[in-house]
Amino acid sequence: MNNSETKSWEEVRIAFKKIWGYDDFRPPQGEIIRSLLQKQDALIVMPTGGGKSICFQLPALLQTGLTLVISPLVALMENQVQELRDRNLPAALLHSEVPTPQRRQTLQTLEHLRLLYLSPETLLSAQVWEKLCQPKLKINGLILDEAHCLVQWGETFRPTYRRLGAVRPALLKLKPAGTKIAIAAFTATADPAAQQTIQQVLQLQQPAVFKNSPYRQNLHLKVQTIWTPRGRRQGLLKFIQERPKQAGLVYVRTRRDSEELTQLLSDRGYATAAYHAGLSPEERRSIEASWLSDKMPFVVCTCAFGMGINKSNVRWVVHFHSPLLLSEYVQEVGRAGRDGKLSEALTLVSERTGWLNPEDKQRREFFAGKMRSQYQEAQQLASKLPPKGEVTAVTKQFRDGAVALALLHSAGQLEWQDPFNYVRRSVGKSRSFGELSSQQQQVQFQMAQYLNTRQCRWQFLLQAFGFTQEAAGWRCGHCDNCARR
Questions:
Q1: For residue 1, what pLDDT is reported?
Q2: Going by C-beta distance under 8 Å and a sequence separation of 6 or more, which residues neighbour residue 41?
Q3: pLDDT-based confidence at 2, cuts 50/70/90?
Q4: Is 447 in contact with 329 (CB distance < 8 Å)?
Q5: Is 455 exposed, middle or buried (0-12, 13-18, 19+ CB in 10 A)?
Q6: Residues 391, 400: Cα–Cα separation, whole Å
Q7: Dihedral, CA of residue 202, residue 131, residue 109 and residue 1, to nearest 10
Q8: Pairwise CA distance, residues 44 & 189, whole Å
Q9: CA–CA gap between residue 483 and residue 203 (Å, rounded)
Q10: How far is 45 from 57, CA to CA, in rounded Å?
């Protein structure tokens, strides 16, 4: 190995077997681990259930110093850290729900940890950032887990993501000369445009790129047209009735949808629960535990559920409402069949015109309108922002100041001098907010194309995510469109 601190490759494999019990790595796990041990930047696109977390956990455990894992969801962090702690490995987490005494204790013991999980917002909070900037604290790497969230959420929902590219340069200024900090981005769903955005925002330097096809031979995809709201409910009930005691997930768009559908299913005698971001941490953990232990066969959930939760025997996933984005869809159907056994993914959709069942059309128009108004408001606000400044001061003065800054950065009209201070730049190769909005609308239109396509559904997905060579002449033989042929 090039890194003098790292042991021989045989010793790496021995550590892997000792911790996780596997004899050897699955391709391309070994190559990814080598690149991170050599402090090389990397972009990794691997299917759900492909063993991504091991790829950054093992290098972190084999080195002295700290690896920061930036993660989007509390449940995702807690599940991964609990698995590491169950193996007596030095890992901890920080997020907004961690009690103050526990947060203080974690910050005092950073020198003894190998992995610290935290959200983008927690990473850039004053108390945590001050501690990470201490010259004596060795930081080996920054891992962006579920990196597609940077693309999906970074402009409007969680604008802190757009500031992550300034983290490494800011830390290196305060660390000893010669310090190297590698950055690796991991995701199961990133098309070529999303991959480019991730590389640009994170400022990856000559990254090693690893891409595995999202195709899952055991996962059968189906889209079913339902003609009325009542028909949608009946379609779901019929599907569940035909699969008694099988583990599954029902995805809906909103909290209200999850609660109303849960009530309907509970009235029919099904043991289930509504899961969404509005629940308390205790409520979320309780539902997860019941589902993971098979006490509750399925959960009615929003996109807040499932990311990073490892349950191998999920036999089916139903989208009661289709997702807005194709990347969300692939993430969510990928929760099924991780054990390699036959699994199904069903999406219920209104007929195209929306005359008889306008639910889906109204929902799409609502979210599209909300997005357009966000861009318009941000554009109006952008003209009021000072040419340079500090993000906290801007957000205090303007309610949506952070969103406006993120959109300016996305449009190429702003640079982050460090994670907290920005400077507006003269318009050169920049884009307008209108162009950004149109681009987002095109991304959402891709989901509608998938739902209405008559070609092999896996072929469509392979093309959409940049696997054009594999997609040529592809026919999976088991999706609904292939079955009709």
A1: 41
A2: 182, 183, 184, 204, 205, 206, 207, 208
A3: very low
A4: yes
A5: middle
A6: 11
A7: 40
A8: 10
A9: 44
A10: 16
Least confident piece of the model among 5-9, 50-54, 215-219: 5-9
Instruction: Tally helices (H) and strands (E) across the chain.
Output: 21, 16
Contact 349, 223 (CB under 8 A): yes
pLDDT in tens, 105-129: 999 999 999 999 999 999 999 999 9
Give residue for tokens 């310090």: 179
For position 308, what pLDDT does the model report?
Answer: 64
Task: Using a cut of 0.85, tell me whether the model's pTM lies above it.
Answer: yes
What is the distance between the alpha carbons of residues 250 and 319, in angstroms, rounded to a whole number? Answer: 6
Residue of higher predicted confidence among 43 and 285: 43
218: amino acid identity, one letter: N
d(CA 231, CA 238) in angstroms, rounded, equals 10
Give residues with Cβ within 8 angstroms of 360, minimum separation 6.
321, 322, 349, 350, 354
Residue identified by tokens 């790496």 is 12
Helix axes 52-62, 9-20, angle to 10 degrees: 120
Q: Is the peptide bond before 244 cis (omega within 30 degrees of 0)?
A: no
Distance between CA atoms of residues 256 and 438, nearest Å:
29
In the structure encoding, which two tokens stand for residue 238, read together? 């019929």
Angle at 216 between CA 215 and CA 218, to 5 degrees: 150
Q: Round to whole Å and give the CA distance between 411 and 430.
A: 5
The average confidence (pLDDT) of the chain is 91
Q: How confident is the model at residue 428 (pLDDT cuts 50, 70, 90)?
A: low
Strand 208-211 to 388-390 pairing: unpaired
State percent of the chain over pLDDT 90: 70
Place of tokens 């889906």: 360
Reduced to 3 states, what is the DSSP secondary structure of residue 396? Answer: helix
**Contact (Cβ atoms closer than 8 angstroms) between residue 62 and residue 89:** no
The two tokens of residue 62 are 């084999």
The confidence band for 427, taking pLDDT boundaries of 50, 70 and 90, is: low
Task: Using only the alpha carbons of the chain, give its radius of gyration.
Answer: 23
pLDDT at 280 (0 to 100)? 85
Number of residues in the chain:
485
